[in-house]
Amino acid sequence: MLNPTHLQTLVEVVRLGSFTAAGNRLGYTASAVSQQMVALEKTLGVKLFIRSARSVQPTNAAQALGRSAVKVLKELDELLALGQSVNGLASRTLRLGAFPSVATFVLPRILESPAWIATEASLKLHIGEPSQVVPSLRAGGDLDAALVYHVGEAGLALPRGVQKHWLGEDPFSVVLPASLGIDEGSVLTVSEVISLPWIQHVRGSSDATIVETVLDHAGLHPRVVASSDDFNATLRLVSVGLGAALVPQLAMAERPPGVCRVSVQGVSLTRQLWLLSGEHAPADLVTTFVEHCMAMLHEPLDSQPEKHQI
Q1: Which of 5, 116, 125, 280 has its CA 20 to 30 A from that of 108?
Q2: What letter would DSSP give residue 255?
Q3: For the residues of 175-201, what is the DSSP string, one character each?
Q4: C-alpha–C-alpha distance, residues 306 and 182, integer Å
Q5: pLDDT 10s digits, 58-96
Q6: Nearest of 270, 273, 271 to residue 164 by alpha carbon
Q7: 199 φ, ψ to 5°?
Q8: Percentage of the chain lying above the pLDDT 70 cut
Q9: Which ranges carry the HTH lysR-type domain (predicted)?
Q10: Start-end of H helices in the chain
Q11: What residues does 49 pair with on adjacent strands?
Q12: Confidence of residue 205 (pLDDT cuts 50, 70, 90)
């Protein structure tokens, strides 16, 4: 008899292309994954992988079995849910992916809201960047929905059947050390900030390229003193006077004292926020979640700045 655990492991090996990657995903060692695949090959009497010293290559049989296994595992989950429902044990769950700043500043407010509590649903959360969570929205994947953003004109490549739900925009702001003595909300020219050191995204990411382009078009070619993709860390560094930065509104929800937000002429950037849902996601929970997200995003999230003493 086929072992469902072995089928799930096969699906991940075929999808990710290695025993090690599948093991990391499922919580097994590469050796344990290899042993499961050997056991599955013996049960089926079919060779599933061409093994070499440094790689494994799924055979056509493995590819076909992997596709069928996705459907079988989904049906097993549905059967289990049906059995729990009959016994009054069913727990409705939304499996959600979310990028770090929305998970930090928006999700806690939603989960504490009476309207969400009234759904009696639980949340299974995976925090990661859009490129990490979107693939799990495919049919038979690990997620029902994902909170994502994208910056600039290029969108995300979505699995088949995924629906997009518009949530709003998350504008970026220039932030400066309050120790510079510049008033909150000031509108500055490029010449007034051109000599400042800057904290920017880690080079190589699409977001970093877009930010560099925006600054370049404004005539800013900053002296970079730190690289960070963690906006909380960036704001802390700004607060102690290390340099200026460009950060999104969501990250300003708990900005530390010592950070001043300003506008710089010619510097304008916004990221778009979406909830993506897979074709088999629980529609009512997705609708409720979209409504809560939109409500939370329209509330003021920015913490109050420290008053500057003249």
Answers
A1: 280
A2: P
A3: EEEGGG-PPTT-EE-HHHHTTSEEEEP
A4: 12
A5: 999 999 999 898 888 877 766 765 665 555 444 578 999
A6: 273
A7: -110, 120
A8: 89
A9: 2-59
A10: 4-16, 19-26, 30-44, 60-86, 100-105, 107-112, 114-117, 130-133, 190-193, 206-217, 231-239, 283-297
A11: 58
A12: low
Residue 102 has which token pair? 């929305």
CB 73 within 8 A of CB 141: no
Q: Provide the 8-state DSSP code for 309.
A: P
Q: What Cα–Cα distance (Å) separates residue 60 from each residue in 14, 46, 47?
A: 10, 11, 9
**Per-domain residue ranges of the chain:** 4-86, 94-310
Which residues make Cβ contacts (< 8 Å) with residue 95, sequence separation at least 6?
A: 124, 126, 142, 143, 144, 145
Residues near 46 by Cβ (< 8 Å), separated by ≥ 6? 59, 61, 65
Report whether CATH 3.40.718.10 matches the domain 4-86: no
The Cα–Cα gap between 54 and 180 comes to 55
Residue 271: partners with Cβ closer than 8 Å, 6 or more residues away: 149, 150, 151, 169, 170, 172, 248
Examine domains 4-86 and 94-310 and report if their fold is the same.
no
Looking from the CA of 241 toward its CB, the CA atoms found within 13 Å total 3
Of the candidates 274, 290, 256, which has an alpha carbon nearest to the alpha carbon of residue 94? Answer: 290
Greatest distance between any 2 Cα atoms in the chain:
81
CB 238 within 8 A of CB 212: no
Of the options 3.50.50.60, 3.40.50.150, 3.40.190.290, 3.30.70.270, the CATH number for the domain spanning 94-310: 3.40.190.290
The Cα–Cα gap between 148 and 135 comes to: 12
For residue 75, give both structure tokens.
């049906």
Distance CA 95, CA 144 (A): 5
Model confidence pLDDT, tens digit, residues 301-310: 555 554 443 3
Distance CA 296, CA 241 (A): 31
CB half-sphere exposure, 243, CA atoms < 13 A: 19
Q: What is the pTM of this model?
A: 0.68
